[in-house]
Write a structure and sequence with these properties.
alpha+beta, 3-stranded antiparallel beta sheet, 4 helices, 27% helix
Length: 124
Amino acid sequence: MTKKSTAAPRAATRTANERGNLRGTAEEKVALPRWDAARRELCLDGRLVKRFRRPAANQEIILAAFEEEGWPPAIDDPLPGAPGIDPRERLHEAVRRLNGSQKDAGIHFERDGSGCRVLWRVRG
């Protein structure tokens, strides 16, 4: 009588860290957000954090930049310049709005002390 293996295939059992959905050491695993630009949804660990029903260009540019770079702890201000608009104030407003209307308030965005970088962290 042969014994059937009950182990799941390797691809199905990869950890979130191996799939690139976690950041940190073995002792400290942090789930990475996921920005789905086509659906205009921000998720964390499979949970919906924020859905955009209307265009929010500056917020979406920031989320796209984080997604493109693999969700590093911080990114430089990705917003394009606009005549007559203070870039620090523009970034401040975009970050403030990113933190608003979150479904479970799972992600906190902030600017660094220079006002030229955006940081994120999991609330909790």
